[in-house]
Amino acid sequence: MKSYLDLLKILPKSNCKECGLESCLLFALKVFSKEISPRACPYLPLESLPKDLLTPNLSFNQLLENLKYLKEKFKALDLREMAENLGAFYDKATHTLSLFYLDTEILIPLEEEGHPLDLKDLKGKELDPRDEILLCNYFLFKGRSPLTGNFVGLEAFPHSISKVKTLKIYAEEPLSEILSQPNIDKKLLFKEFKITQFKEEQGNLSITIFALPKVPLMINFWAGDLEDQLLPSCKILYDASAINYLDLECLVFLAERLTEKLRDYVSRT
Ligand code: SF4
């Protein structure tokens, strides 16, 4: 794809404004100048876009700007009050809050009034800004309802059409590739994560991971069958209350981040 005109060719040209812009032409121009994410148009077939247009979603400066704004709101929270609702542990003796996030333990030192001073991992290492954004959002949502134990696809949540595609491209398809690799020890692959359910049968897998204390993800993987021309596939499910803990963008990012971590593990071994 050489210019915005190539992108314009695959847009519906309906000027429906759902992306927040006046026209498809303006949208195509802004995607090429990285001022807007291509994911903002629910009708754009993401699979036909080159990777450099898809990533990063936001320029680094935009990402930092969002983080600055979120951190200001995050730092005004009293985390002691919401620790229990969010499955975090408040240690009165050290005046810190801790919680598990994917394969990492997060430690948050608090001020006297319970406001967070910082967001780091247990070893004091800085977090990736994208992880900071997700964690700030998790706290800002304040956990408004208990888990249901009922797992649903992302499509069950309102206004999720474009995100369902993103989840497929950035998490379900790469996960399927990882899990269908021959000789992969699936128990070892997930050993750093909080797992509550692990069923493996004839190459198929169903696993539930607490990506955050109140956001479990269920990964269902079918190994496929070459004789019957069935390809391997993967489906990620969320607890029906997940939308009360994170917005759709963050729910998708959580699955993407899990996939990245598994991919890193595979490339190291
Ligand atoms: S949402 Fe898509 S189709 Fe609608 S105006 Fe924006 S780019 Fe065009």
Structure, explained:
This protein has 269 residues and is of the alpha+beta class. It folds into three domains: 44 residues, Electron transport complex subunit B, putative Fe-S cluster (3-methyladenine DNA Glycosylase II, Chain A, domain 3); 82 residues, no CATH class; 118 residues. The chain has nine helices and nine strands. The strands form two sheets. The chain has a five-stranded antiparallel β-sheet with strand order 5-9-8-7-6. It has a four-stranded antiparallel β-sheet with strand order 1-2-3-4, with no helix packed on it. α1 packs across α2, α4 runs parallel beside α6 and α7 packs parallel to α9. The two termini are 35 Å apart. 29% of the residues are buried. Iron/sulfur cluster (SF4) binds next to α2.
